Amino acid sequence: MKAFRIVGAVAAVLAATAVSPLAAHAEDAGRLEAARKEGRLVLYTANQLESEQDLVARFNKKYPGIQVEIVRAPGSRLATRIQTEVAAGKLAADVIDMSDRGLAADFQQIFADYAPPNAAQYPERAKTLPNLWPKTSWGFVIAYNAASGVKPPASWRDLADRQYDGKVGVVVANSGGSTWTRAMFTRQVVGEDYWKALAANHPMLYPSGAPAASGIVRGEVLLGGVQSNAVIPMVRSGAPLKVVYPEEGIPITTSVAGIPKTSPHPNAARVFMDWAMSAEGQTAWVQDGGGFSVMEGAPLPEGATAATRLWIPDPQEFVALRGEWIGEWNRTFGVK
Amino acid sequence: MLAMNREPASLRYAWMLFLLAILGFLVIYPVTMLALGALSEDSPVAGAGDAAYSLAAFVAVLADPDVLRATWNTLVVCAGGTAAAVAMGLFFSWVTARTNTPFVRVIEAVSVMPLLIPPLVAAVAWSILGSPQTGLINVLLQGLGLDWRVNFYSRWGIVAIFGIYYSPYVYMFTSSAMKNMDPALEEAAAISGVSTFKTIFQITLPLILPAIIAGTMLAFVVMLGIYGIPAVLGTPARVSVLTTYIYELISSAPPHFSKAAATSVILIAVTALAVLAQQRVLRGKSFVTVAGKAFRPRLIDLGRWKYLTLAVSAAYLLAAVVLPTVALLMGAFRSFLYIPDLAAVFDTSMYSLNHFRRLFSNSLTLLSLQNTLKIGVITAAVGGALSFAIAYSVYRTRLPLRGLVDVVSTLPVAIPGLVIGVAYIWAWINLPGGVYGSVWILALAFVARFIPDTVKSLSTSLLQVHRELEEASLICGRGRFYTIRRIILPLIAPGLVSSMSLLFILSIRELGSSLFLYSSRSLPMSVLLVNLYEGGDFGVTAAFSVVQTLILVAVVLFTTWLGRKTSIAGKL
Fold first, then answer.
1. Residues 6+ apart with CB under 8 A from A108
2. Which of A6, A27, A84, B378 has the highest CB neighbour number within 10 Å of its CB?
């Protein structure tokens, strides 16, 4: 009798512990079923369009029944759009991926409670806003025109070297969140005097990343700092470019992505976010798209080594220093 | 005179108030939202009701030395660009409409082609061509052994490109005016022994003065609002203009809407002044050139000089059309644009269809094409009808409140596309029935945005038809609508067709106002183009530009054919 009761108790305990993962599994299967019924989701993103489309194609290999429609705009425009739609009660997004943490903070209250299963694998610096996650990380590397025979640089400091006078391309610091991160990094890590030194090298200024990358390919300038996901695909398709991971490190901008409370397709949204934040999704972004990931154990883009250091800005400083430092950057580089 | 008083006063006021109501919704309401945005810190939608209104933004803008510098740069490049555009537009109108220069039809067709290239694409093409060391022009010059180099990254570069790309505006107004001119006046001068040169400057040009002024004003005001060309060509040279300054404000984090809106209000004020000036200059003068008699346009025999005019036309076309097209084609077909010297241009291994393959394997490409064509047709139909109603009421009648309608319908021109895009979303996001998020709101925005262009374009045709033609009909007992349908419309048919096709082309190209209003399903081609451009894949961007240009060429060919078929002169 007693043994029976003990066995029964043990069996009950075993059953209870077995039920939770089973329950979770059942919940996942239930969500997937609901997501398939929803059949689609709308993604508002600040990432480059073709990069995001490649990521979605990977997602669809695993989840073919869920169509992802994309609305793409650079950070500020996206923020304006979202805020206006929210105010009118017409937000159409199921997932929002913003490049500028500071802007997203203004409307963080619209996001539903959400955390991916592997949330613990992400650094604290990238999780400063509740329910928002670093789905996409952009990093600045140096690209140079290999066919021109220019001497390859090894560091950010090298760009200010006299031998590159008039040959360097620089994207203006105010072009977006990632260029501001780059400017902040070069001043805080490379040196206080770096901006002046680089400006003295008569760099060519570009209004945004795309013409800068194009300028290096065309030989208009021979080297410069550009986003890795802009140039690595070009290198792969045979452009006369090579990528350098500078000694001082890679300035990384992490996006903030979440699911609005008003999402019309909440299950599909969660399936997508879970995938994008998982090892599989992050690896797809790095290996297909040439981007970076701040997930623990994530791979690095091709050409990077264990010595490559990723630098994430301090979240408070990112907001507090921005206005003043961008003004100084503009004055130093003669942007009127 | 008698005919004008047929309608009762109440009906006349009702009609004008109806027009003003439509214009109010399309123009005044968004501009008011813009003004509210300028006066407060919050966006008018989000912070409505409890915002603190102040003139702080205006004060900040007027006191800012950066704004002063940007304003000065803006006036310089726009004035220079307008002068260049008028010179070129007038020259070509005269060559194609009044002289016996050979290949006139070709010159005609090709001289409006710069309109077909969206400003962003043109700017990119010219940066490929005119970049200081590696621009294709410089590669060519170097290959030819010449020491001379060009640099389009400068104020002069912007002036030249503005002149080239906006001369079609002037051309379209002045050439249809010249074509519809009764040559009797010029013939009288010829008979009296006046030289060709004097005839041009003392008779021909003064008679088409309204067309010249309309084209000049429109070109100037449109240039004020262009972003793409000064952004691409001006940034490397650190030249900033008002539009790039406004763009910086909107794109910074957080966006400075109040300052951007305040700066735009300044642009609007300049436009209003320009329109009032135009009304004053044209008041009380008669520019009638289409009267009751049939006529054939008189061609001037230039003798040997016609080869000179042909050569000048060819040089312009080379610069305005051929070179940028070559640059675009190279970008589209060549794997990469690294061209160290002239020989590299002919390296055939570098050319392929890869960019086109990648373009068409993107599911958004076909979707955007369908959306754009839908939007274009709706805009041309609705916008054409509305603009005709406005143009007729303002220019062919003595209805009350005409001057007000004229000013209001011209206001949208001076507002940069990006800024008016924000104004439109603020104004219309609450429209019922799912309009926001569909192609209809884009069509609405384009109809509103391009009223000035279409009305001005129709006005020149309408101003040339003599009153006696309408009066004859009205005196015989026919009503106003019959008169419009059977007399006015057939007479101005080519002008109407060309205005509607202008509208169609502008809506295909329009970017700024689409950016805030499109949704994933109503994505237009212009937005897809800029998304591809911002993604850095220049080859696909160039390939898509080539596709868009081909579509626009097809549209222009079709409407030119249609215009010729409907022209009364053609039926004589």
1. A129, A130, A131, A132
2. A84
Of A72, A100, A218, the CB nearest to B338: A218
Alpha-carbon distance of B240 to B233, in angstroms, equals 10
Distance of alpha carbon A91 from alpha carbon B117, whole angstroms: 34
CA A190 to chain B, closest CA, distance in angstroms equals: 24
Set of chain A residues whose Cβ sits within 8 Å of the Cβ of B371: none
Of A122, A101, A112, A116, nearest in space to A255 by CA: A101
Q: A131-145, B202-216, B383-397 — which one is most confidently predicted on average?
A: A131-145
Rounded distance, CA B408 to CA B393, Å?
14
Tokens 């903070």 map to which residue? A105
Token duo for residue B502: 């202008």
d(CA A225, CA A157): 12
Within B118-238, where are the H helices?
A: 119-130, 136-143, 155-179, 184-191, 196-199, 205-207, 209-224, 228-234
Q: How many other CB atoms are found less than 10 A from the CB of residue B393?
A: 18
Strands A223-227, A204-206: parallel, antiparallel or unpaired by DSSP?
A: unpaired
Confirm if B154 and B237 have CB atoms less than 8 A apart: yes
Q: How far apart are the first and last CA of chain A?
A: 90
Collapsed DSSP state (helix, strand, coil) of residue A199:
helix
Point out the least confidently predicted range of A324-328, B72-76, B405-409: B405-409
Q: What is the pTM of this model?
A: 0.83
- The secondary element (H helix, E strand) that includes residue B323 is helix B323-333
pLDDT digits (tens, 9 = 90+) for B82-92: 999 999 998 88
CB atoms within 10 A of CB B479: 12
Report the alpha-carbon distance of residue B175 to residue B98 in Å, rounded: 9
DSSP state for residue A158 in the 8-state scheme: G
Instruction: In whole angstroms, give the CA distance from residue A299 to residue A281.
Output: 12
The residue of chain A nearest to residue B429, with distances taken between CA atoms, is A88
Instruction: Identify whether the C-beta of residue A86 lies closer than 8 Å to the C-beta of residue A107.
Output: yes
- Residue window 431-450, chain B: list those with CB within 8 Å of chain A: 436-437
Nearest C-alpha neighbor of B328 from the set B549, B546, B551: B546
Q: Which two tokens stand for residue A296?
A: 């623990």
Nearest residue of chain B to residue A237 (CA atoms):
B335
| Radius of gyration of chain B from its Cα atoms, rounded to whole angstroms | 24
pLDDT in tens, A305-315: 888 999 999 98
The closest of B172, B272, B158 to B226, measured between CA atoms, is: B158
CA dihedral B535, B541, B544, B545 (to 10 degrees): 130
Structure tokens at B315: 């040089």
ipTM comes to 0.81
Instruction: Kindly report the number of other CB atoms within 10 A of residue B243's CB atom.
Output: 28
Q: Which two tokens stand for residue A2?
A: 């007693």
